[in-house]
tRNA-dihydrouridine(20/20a) synthase
Amino acid sequence: MEKSALKDQCPKVSIAPMVDRTDRHFRYFCRLITRRSLLYTEMITTSAIINGDRHKILDFDQFEKPVALQIAGCDPREVYEAVKIAEDWDYDEINLNAGCPSDRVSGNEMGAVLMAYPEKVAEMIAAMKRATKKPVTIKHRIGIEGKNVLPDYFERTLLDKYEDMMSFVKTVEQAGAERFIIHARIAVLEGLSPKENREVPPLRYKDVYKLKRELPHLNIVINGGIKTIGDIEGHLRYVDGVMIGRAAYDNPFMLAEVDKFFNDGKVNNITRRQVIEGLIPYIEKIEKEGVKGYAALVHTLGLFFNKKGSKTWKQLITPPWPEGYSGKDILFKALDSLPQDVLDEAVLA
């Protein structure tokens, strides 16, 4: 297995792992728009990799690379086994989820609750590094509120101080984590939904900046509430990289501009017409494999975000389609129906 092209590098921009969002279809779509950003899978549990349909779970198109696999687990042995299995798929990076606040995850001692157990996380990172030569990274929050979730023997359930995060990072660093992707909010493990956990706890960007300042040798990527090119530019003054979440899904064409942040990078001056034309052979291919075209096209609803033709685009690609139409037919119809000036608009006019 070849070493990852990401070894010893920190991607300036990455697209966050998002459940029910960042599947292989969305990643293919993203790669048409950004050539350089690091893409992530959805969070996949170690038990799913060990016991599930591995090809369905782990297969991806080489066009998507570089792509990172994010796993969720709580047992170093299972983590090792899952990463060892995933070696056959040649992901560019393996990432451990220590930031998901969902009670379905934290209730199984996975995700954000792991921030209360830094030594256990260090064991898992060490196990992952034994299983692969690819970069091993971690995504976590700045802290957690673990009331009614953490065991009674914890003196504090609110682990939200800067010093708590610093202690966690230093412990995990010793195990060899090569990059820390930090969502700049705490995670509230009970009482808030995953959506509310992305919005209610206040953003504390300065804590992440401070961590980079005090531990300058670490690769630090910031995540949370980042929506514009200007936001990315601002954060890159203080940290090594930026991870974009929902904004990349809601307004994916913004990604055409992010390649300029990479070394020797430049804007991928693609048009929406070229993106749609790039999707046509992909949709044709997956439909021949028995996959419904809308399974991929649903992830493109935001392609015309805040532009003329947005409503028309959404209506065209959303079923029911005209009788006998394939996904390819829908895309050709879109090219004929949408405003030509918007289809041909590029970032660099």
